[in-house]
Specification:
The chain is an all-alpha fold. The protein contains 15 helices and two strands. Helix 11 (245-258) packs across helix 12.
């Protein structure tokens, strides 16, 4: 194709390294926006977790905030009741959300797309109502307060300027992103691609489709739980909106904006969405949602396949060029 540039593996690695270095350098370049940058990283990881279920495995879900909120409450309750060590809090949230995702996968994986849609919405709404009813434990609509998160590695205390929060979130998100990339590039990830493209063909060659979809859903739930736990630990607060349907809709918008089924779609979508969101909110505090809606409609209309889809039409790898 004309006007299409081919990226060699070396150039592709350079672009990846530059992407993460640019995010890391915001610690020095944007010292007054570290809280926003931390949230961009966290919501980017959340979108990546949704992409694994939706974009790679083809599981239609609109209730992924159930796992995000569950991870946030797990980390928050641990920190409130005497265990504020952040890294172990992430691991506990990961395990709890993985178990929750695997249990729910028996309902989600079996159904057709419309059934999956309704089940995931129902689970999200039920968990949000449960969190509201158990206000003595979760704080209800007032949110979970009184969290005490210990210094990271016993050395770096969380400060008001968000420096430790940003560094902690950056490292945690990078590690989880590399883990997701490793899984998606493994034979298991390739099998998910095959199931997404043609479930019947994968069944015909003897692939255990349902078992792999359950594992993919559980893994995506675990990653979402880590994202939720990160938000709870870096803000030292858990709001009930973290487990609500609106949060699920927001992360879906982020993923569609960035591009589904693309490794960096969730990260890029989070950067663009949250920066534009913040800019419109500052520019017009009264009608910012109107302008944000116009932007999202224009982005979807003009950029088929999201931002990463548009970039893939301009740049391609040597593998796709063959």
């Amino acid at each position: 194709m004309k006007n299409t540039l081919t990226l060699t593996p070396q150039r592709l690695r350079t672009v990846e390294i530059a992407f993460w270095l640019a995010l890391g350098c915001s610690f020095f370049v944007l010292p007054d926006q570290l809280t926003l940058m931390s949230q961009i990283l966290i919501f980017g990881l959340f979108a990546v977790s949704l992409d694994m279920a939706l974009g790679y495995a083809g599981i239609l879900t609109v209730g992924h905030a159930a796992f995000f909120g569950a991870g946030a409450y797990v980390a928050g309750l641990l920190a409130k009741h005497g265990w504020g060590e952040p890294i172990s809090g992430l691991l506990v949230a990961l395990l709890v959300c993985a178990a929750l995702g695997y249990a729910l996968s028996y309902l989600v994986v079996r159904g057709a797309d419309l059934t999956r849609l309704m089940i995931t919405i129902g689970v999200c709404v039920l968990l949000a109502e449960l969190a509201n009813r158990l206000s003595g434990i979760t704080g209800g609509t007032d949110g979970l307060q009184g969290m005490v998160v210990w210094p990271v590695l016993g050395l770096f205390e969380f400060d008001l300027f968000g420096k430790t929060a940003f560094g902690y979130a950056f490292v945690a998100v990078l590690v989880m992103f590399l883990l997701v990339r490793l899984v998606l590039r493994s034979p298991f990830g390739l099998a998910l691609r095959g199931i997404h493209d043609s479930r019947k063909r994968m069944l015909a060659i003897g692939s255990p489709v349902e078992a792999r979809l359950r594992m993919a859903y559980a893994f995506s739930a675990a990653v979402a739980g880590v994202a939720g736990a990160l938000l709870a630990q870096t803000t030292q607060f858990v709001g009930i909106e973290s487990i609500g349907f609106n949060r699920s809709a927001e992360v879906l918008i982020i993923l569609v904006l960035g591009g589904t089924g693309r490794l960096y779609g969730g990260m890029v979508g989070a950067i663009v969405y949250m920066l534009v969101h913040d800019w419109f909110a500052d520019m017009n505090p009264q009608y910012w949602m109107f302008w944000l809606g116009i932007f999202l409609i224009a982005a979807v209309m003009l950029g088929r396949g999201g931002i990463m889809g548009a970039l893939s039409r301009r740049f391609r790898t040597e593998e796709s060029a063959r």
